[in-house]
Write a structure and sequence with these properties.
Blueprint: H1 4-16, H2 24-32, E1 53-54, E2 62-63, H3 66-76, E3 83-87, H4 93-100, E4 104-109, H5 112-124, E5 130-134, E6 147-156, H6 161-164, E7 167-178, E8 183-191, E9 194-202
Parallel strand pairs: 3-4, 3-6, 4-5, 6-7
Antiparallel strand pairs: 1-2, 7-8, 8-9
Length: 219
C-alpha cells in the first residue's frame, strides 16, 4: 500500500520548497492536510504529483497543481482570522489549507451535491472552520459580506470583477488569468472603487466557465 505521508512530504520538499513557496506555516499545512482524500479515488496514485488532478465528487472539478496552489495561497498573504472566500473549491482541499492557516473560510461551489461531498471530506480530514455554500460561481454569495482574500481554483478569461467587488479595501483576489495556451497567476488588489493587478508567474489552470469569453463569430 502506498504510504501517503512519505509521498506528501516529497511533494512539499520537491515541488513547493524548490519553487519559492517559503511560508513555513503554509508548508506545514501542505504537510499535514491529506491531499489524496480530496482526489477522485481513480487518481490516488498521482494525488501528490505536480499536475492537475480530478477532485472527488460529481462536478469532476479539476484541482490546481500543488506548486501553483501553493504560490497562489502564499500570494494571498493569509493571516489568522481573515475572512477568505474559496471559489470552485471542489472537494475542499484548498479550503482545508486556508483553514489550517487560521482563516475563516467560505467555500463556494455551483452544485449542491459537490458541496455536500466537500463537507463530508473536510470532516473526514478533521478540518474545521470552513462554511460550504452552493450558488453561482460569479454571484452566489451574500454581497453584504466582504472578504480579506479570495482564491479562485482555476483559470478565468475575463476579469472576475463581481468577486473583486466583494473584497475589503486592500483585499486580494488570486486567480489564473488567460487563454488555454498562455496564462498566468494574477493578484488583484482592491483600492477604493478600482483595483490594481500584478502578474505572479506563468501557470495553467482549468477554465472556470462563469468567467469564460463568449465565442465571437468573424465574417
Amino acid at each position: 500500500m502506498l504510504d501517503f505521508s512519505d509521498v506528501r512530504q516529497a511533494m512539499v520538499d520537491g515541488q513547493l520548497r524548490t519553487n519559492d513557496v517559503t511560508n513555513s506555516e503554509l508548508l506545514d499545512a501542505f504537510t499535514l492536510v491529506p491531499r489524496h482524500l480530496f482526489v477522485d479515488p481513480t487518481q490516488h496514485p498521482i494525488a501528490y504529483a505536480d499536475r492537475v488532478v480530478t477532485a472527488l465528487g460529481p462536478a469532476h472539478r479539476q484541482m490546481l497543481s500543488p506548486m501553483c496552489l501553493g504560490r497562489m495561497i502564499q500570494a494571498a498573504e493569509i493571516k489568522e482570522g481573515m475572512a477568505v472566500l474559496d471559489v470552485a473549491g471542489g472537494a475542499g482541499y484548498s479550503s482545508a489549507l486556508l483553514a489550517a492557516l487560521g482563516a475563516e473560510v467560505t467555500m463556494l461551489e455551483d452544485q449542491m451535491a459537490q458541496t455536500l461531498i466537500a463537507e463530508q471530506t473536510l470532516k473526514k480530514a478533521g478540518i474545521g472552520g470552513v462554511i460550504t455554500i452552493s450558488g453561482e460561481i460569479a454571484n452566489g454569495v451574500d454581497k453584504k459580506i466582504n472578504y480579506d482574500a479570495i482564491l479562485l481554483n482555476g483559470r478565468c478569461e475575463l476579469v472576475p470583477e463581481s468577486l473583486i467587488d466583494l473584497l475589503v479595501e486592500g483585499g486580494r483576489l488570486v486567480v489564473v488569468m488567460g487563454s488555454s495556451t498562455s496564462s498566468s497567476v494574477r493578484v488583484f488588489t482592491r483600492s477604493d472603487d478600482s483595483f490594481g493587478e500584478k502578474r505572479l508567474m506563468s501557470a495553467y489552470g482549468p477554465l472556470i466557465s462563469a468567467f469564460s469569453r463568449v465565442p465571437e463569430f468573424v465574417f
